[in-house]
Amino acid sequence: MNFDIAMTGFVALYIFTLAAFAGWVIIGNVPAILHTPLMSGSNFVHGIVVVGGLYGLFNATTPLEQAIGFFAVLLGAGNAAGGYAVTDRMLAMFKTSDAKPKAAHGHGHARVHHLKKS
Amino acid sequence: MLTLVSQLVIGGADLCAAFLFMFGLKRMSSPATAPSGIRVAGLGMIAAVAASFLYLFTVDAAARPHMMVNIGLAVTALLIGGVGAWFVGRKVAMTAMPQMVAIYNGMGGGAAGSIAALELFGGHTQGITQLVVTLLGGLIGAVSLSGSVIAWAKLDGVIKKPLRVKGQQFANAAVMIASLAVAGVIVASSLGASGLPFTTSTWIWIFFACALVFGVLMTLPIGGADMPVVISIYNAFTGLAVGLGGFVLQNPALMIAGMVVGAAGLLLTVLMAKAMNRSIANVLFTNFGAEAKAKPGAIQGNERPTDASDAAIKMRYASSVIIVPGYGLAAAHAQQKLYEFVKLLLAAKVSVKFAIHPVAGRMPGQMDDINDDFATTDVALVIGANDVVNPAARSDKSSPIFGMPILNADKAKQVYVIKRGQGKGYSGIVNALFYSPNCNMVYGDAHVVLVKMIEAVRGLGAAAA
């Protein structure tokens, strides 16, 4: 038995089509406030390229291939790790609104309508 | 046997990763679930990378003698790239985030380009389809790499000004055509064409050099203000390159992750451009920045409309909001809805204040206290008020309302104005506030808009549950 995946042209096209549709639907209706974090998050996701780099490096036979493979893994790992670190920090502002630092309230709003949670 | 088990485990891990990426991205597209989204995607990444070491049991016989060296190289590259990028990503100032996204994205593009190069130099591609796809992936990856580096340099201030030369677009087109032509030569030589001046590997070097130069040329003329959109485009490019690389390597996880990011990145680019009131073609080809400043008249720019839900979510995650109610609120009978909305904001621990102008029923002088607060406030929400927040009264001596005391709503970091439509206020004067870069318009009847805002904030609570 062979578990190798036979990726014929049409199977690949089906995968591409469905994945593209999924990506489009997943992002639909996202509020503007999340545009940048989401860009960063999807940037992290394509860090999966490091897996391809590892595959290439493990199968390298010449110094040139080893050098290129090393470069691919190096860059891919940077993409994944850096992308995660940056996205996580961006999303920290959405964590829980309780932990959020409050803005200074200033003084003397006695005559201004000033609602506060009682 | 070992090979078979390895293939199974790798396949399973990659399947999990593909699922977790999509699930994570879905969670990242709502503020309530976003922080957990990146964690979910991170798990997928760890699983896929760990499992990929099992490729060692499946390598070709030719690569076996090099295995120990290759493992050493892989671990070194993972450690240097991963740990280095992690620490930089953790330490860098929050304001430097966009350029960090650019540089990490460029790294991904470079990795995808390198994989294509590996396949090309090693002659691993089988058949013309794989060769063409590899070349395409390599081209896109390389453009994304050099383009992202230029984007980073611009945002980081290394390159100060957009570089524009006459006939630049022709030069760009020429380089693009050159790289496609070289790609054609590589395909031809693989089909056995003879009499070419260089060896195939020389052509491959030329191909990547052209692609890298194209990325640089394409990004140099674009102004710094448009960089987020450009980075988003390159993000989609890298996704596409990774997806194509996945096809060549016969790896469905790369195909799915890459293609999801490619499509999501494209949509995100469209949305971002829309939020900035720009079209993508405009960003890429018309050298923004010079053009926007050239508009005649005292007031520059456009009114930039936004969705009620976007504005509501921004307020929900702000720490302070000042509401400026005006005649439009009363005219729409929306006071009750405003009260509901404010209750939601207060429940989310947002500090909410009201600033009411004398013409809306209070005496002059009562607004002086709050006027100093706008500068330290995240969001000012103006509901159906116009002249009382027109900064022309402060600055423009020729304005008929010059000298009238106004509320300094324009000083807030972000201003949203709920307004029935474009047009002038009671006094018939154009309001400079509506055109300022920190102001977005939410068009519609105050009652309708507030109902939408309440729904948007409530929806967040439902998504979190």
Structure keywords:
heterodimer; A: 118 residues; mainly alpha; 4 helices; 58% helix; B: 465 residues; five-stranded parallel sheet; 17 helices; elongated
Would you kindly provide a written description of the structure presented here, covering whatever features stand out?
The complex is a heterodimer of chains A (118) and B (465). Chain A has 118 residues and is mainly α. Chain A has helices at 9-27, 35-45, 49-58, 63-91, and one strand at 114-115. In chain A, helix 3 (49-58) runs antiparallel to helix 4 (63-91). The radius of gyration of chain A is 24 Å and the shape is flat. The model of chain A is unreliable at 97-118 (pLDDT under 50). Chain B has a 5-stranded parallel β-sheet with strand order 2-1-3-4-5. Chain B contains 17 helices and 5 strands. Helix content of chain B is 60%, strand content 6%. Classes of the chains: A mainly alpha (118), B mainly alpha (465). At the A-B interface, helix 1, helix 2, helix 3, helix 4 and strand 1 of A face helix 1, helix 2, helix 3, helix 4 and helix 8 of B. Strand 1 of chain A pairs antiparallel with strand 2 of chain B.
Brief characterization of the structure:
The complex is a heterodimer of chains A (118) and B (465). Chain A is mainly α and 118 residues long.
Number of helices of chain B: 17
Order of helices and strands of chain B: HHHHHHHHHHHHEHHEHEHEEH
Q: How does the helix and strand content of chain A classify structurally?
A: mainly alpha
Shape of chain A: flat
Mean pLDDT of chain A, to the nearest integer, reads 79
Main sheet record of chain A: none
Strand arrangement within the widest β-sheet of chain B reads 2-1-3-4-5
Strand content of chain B: 5-15%
Would you tell me the overall average pLDDT of chain B? Answer: 85
The total of helices of chain A stands at: 4
Helix content of chain A: 55-70%
